[in-house]
Amino acid sequence: MAVQLIKKQDLRRSILDTSRHMLVSEGFNHLSMRKIAREAGCSATSIYLYFRNKDALLHALIDEGFEMIFSLIKGKISEDNRPAVNLEVLCRTFIKFGLDNPEYYEIMFLLHPKNMDRYPAENFRRATRPVSILADTLLQGEKTGYFTIQDPVVEAHVIWSSLHGAITAILANRIDVRINQQDFIDSVVQHVIRGLTRGREKNGC
Amino acid sequence: MAVQLIKKQDLRRSILDTSRHMLVSEGFNHLSMRKIAREAGCSATSIYLYFRNKDALLHALIDEGFEMIFSLIKGKISEDNRPAVNLEVLCRTFIKFGLDNPEYYEIMFLLHPKNMDRYPAENFRRATRPVSILADTLLQGEKTGYFTIQDPVVEAHVIWSSLHGAITAILANRIDVRINQQDFIDSVVQHVIRGLTRGREKNGC
DNA sequence: TATAGTACTTAACAGTGTTAAGTACTTCGT
DNA sequence: ACGAAGTACTTAACACTGTTAAGTACTATA
Known about the structure:
Number of strands of chain A: 0
Radius of gyration of chain A: 20 Å
Distance between the termini of chain A: 76 Å
Structural class of chain A: mainly alpha
Oligomer: homodimer
Strand content of chain A: under 5%
Helix content of chain A: 55-70%
């Protein structure tokens, strides 16, 4: 009985591992239940024993992605840093995550939610942790006088969406070929920071 | 013969009209060749007489979208306006277009190009006109001393991608429910403009 | 009137997600 | 020890998808 349960979870894990591997190596739109099954060594319908449907399997992968980005961020920001430093680290970490993990980024942020099952509420809360950390950072910067902010939550979403736009533009190859990618990224980050520190940097006043 | 040619183009137009209508009313991912054919009154394979494949048909619709947004922009900006006015108009027009035409926006900016046939070079040039106009506006603002810009082309892409991020965030319902949509949009636009006018507005210097 | 070309259709292929039904096998209660 | 129940899986099937090959009327031309 105990052995059975372990074996059961073995197939589940195998399906998840295969899916993750295939997602990264072949891309989201080559991810099919039958292909996963073939690779995982079971029939396509067996997947449904462990995941309600394809979306549920995808949600599990999306979860992994959010766990990745959360631990990346957590490992890089620090209460000891000045808010402006944490802000820049947040921006660059997010961008780097997107560019390093385009397939994860796609399922996490590019899949049209309208076409998918609703992302479970509990997972959703986890998914929004990074933007909460960003809002906290902004609030702290505002309190300590580094930033000029009206509403940290709104501002955090503005910044987050701006970074998202930059990442997708790069991933989709929509940046003019004349533009150096690093220059573009630096410009985006600079733009974000400028928007918060207006009139606060040394300008001879 | 002349009559035939007209009739021929009639079916092509009917397919295109049906596709556009179905795209807007049912969404991109409910757009199938068989459904279009059924609605247009022909067989699915007849579509292939006028469009190389589904992507080519989609490209035609995407083209329409870029024509729409281009004429929207052209109708709203003016050489007589101050660059800052044109900039804000550009931003708000683009955002409004995205929110008013989510299905067009999806096929124009959200479809992963990797999964599609290459967008024809000539069309691509037309598609990039809005961002060129934006770059021109920035350059003009820089020349006349309104903006502080390093590279107008880079800056235009930064702004464009930032707006894109904002639009997709709204369309994908990724904006926190506590945030008022108009507040968010205003914040985004303000953020864009701030990034260009740093140290130039009246600040008591 | 036969030929060539136009404008279309039907049938089929290979793939998709998903469900219903069936099959071994294992464990449990009597 | 034996039938019942439950587990872990599979096969077959449905209703779709984009796309191609082959076939069918019809029409204009030589």
